[in-house]
């Protein structure tokens, strides 16, 4: 089984921007409103596209499968079958031997910036950059599937 081990954090400040090595624009959508046992996502990232199936569990480790699909078909799926969509710019930062993915959301999720790090083990130690805020790994509201259906802009100010 393919296993993703990932931790997610709120980003604070702008110090991270000077460390970005590259960035990619992403559009993604989900093929079901509620995840059930799995979420199915379509993503277009620059000139490539993927179909992703991920276990719908909260936490740092979950099953994940990803397959390349033609960009034209992905765009068609996004426009015709996806019930929730979002857009973001993913910034890549290499630091202390780890690649951080900083997602700067646009559109209805503008104002939200989160950082994710993929690890090789649940208990893997890493150096925490100063621009990391509170951990969001166990907060379903910050998962992309939830953000696609319940955009950040629609949250009460107290919920942030």
From TrEMBL:
It comes from the Bacteria. Residues 2-149 form the CYTH domain. This is Adenylate cyclase. Pfam families: CYTH. The active site is at 30 (proton acceptor). Transmembrane segments: none annotated.
């Amino acid at each position: 089984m393919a296993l993703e081990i990932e931790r997610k954090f709120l980003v604070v400040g702008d110090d991270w921007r000077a460390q970005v090595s590259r960035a990619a624009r992403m559009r993604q959508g989900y093929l079901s409103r509620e995840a059930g046992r799995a979420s199915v996502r379509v993503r277009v990232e620059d000139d490539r596209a993927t179909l992703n199936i991920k276990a719908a569990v909260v936490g740092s480790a979950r099953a994940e499968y990803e397959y390349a699909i033609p960009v034209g078909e992905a765009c068609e799926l996004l426009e015709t079958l996806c019930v929730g969509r979002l857009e973001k710019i993913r910034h890549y930062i290499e630091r202390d031997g780890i690649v951080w993915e900083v997602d700067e959301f646009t559109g209805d999720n503008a104002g939200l910036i989160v950082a994710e790090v993929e690890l090789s083990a649940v208990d893997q130690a890493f150096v925490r950059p100063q621009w990391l805020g509170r951990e969001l790994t166990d907060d379903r509201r910050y998962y992309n599937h939830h953000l696609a259906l319940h955009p950040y802009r629609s949250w009460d100010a107290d919920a942030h």
